[in-house]
Amino acid sequence: MKKALYKFHFDCGKNGKLYGLFLADENKVKELIESKRNIYFGQVLGEKSEVMGPIEENDLTFITNDEKVIAVVEYYDMENGFNPFDYDIVNDDDLKDSDDT
After folding, report:
1. Which long-range contacts (CB under 8 A, 24 or more apart) does 31-34 make?
2. Cα–Cα distance between 75 and 64 in angstroms, integer?
3. Alpha-carbon 31 to chain mean position
4. Which of 14, 50, 63, 92 could crosslink 5 through cysteines, CB 3.0-4.6 Å?
5. Mean pLDDT, the chain, as a whole number?
6. Distance between CA atoms of residues 11 and 15, nearest Å
């Protein structure tokens, strides 16, 4: 499991954008993209914004997997902003249930 540094940029249309810089296992990032699962960020852009969606390849920029850089980022706690791994995965069934109410 090799850690890498990623830049996150999630376009939410007219509501705004989510940005982040985070460390994650390269394989887990690949799995997240391929799974096309919806990530639920909540109302992070204001009341009733309900931000969610699948993480696509163009939402992430691979920065580096250099061990020295990773060590510096960890030591100085330089991760910031949004990390899609910190949020819940919403199943398609959950979305259907909320539409029925």
Report:
1. 32/84, 32/85, 33/57, 33/60
2. 16
3. 12
4. 63
5. 93
6. 9
CB contact at 8 A, 15 and 49: yes
Confidence of residue 1 (pLDDT cuts 50, 70, 90): confident
CA-closest candidate to residue 51, choices 17, 101, 6: 17
Q: 60 is written with which tokens?
A: 């992430």
Q: Can you tell me which residue has the tokens 């960890």? A: 74
Domains in the chain, number = 1
| Structural domain for 72, as ranges | 3-100
Task: List strand residue ranges (DSSP E) for 1-101, in order.
Answer: 3-11, 17-25, 38-42, 51-54, 60-64, 80-81, 88-90
CA distance 97 to 78: 38
pTM of the model: 0.89
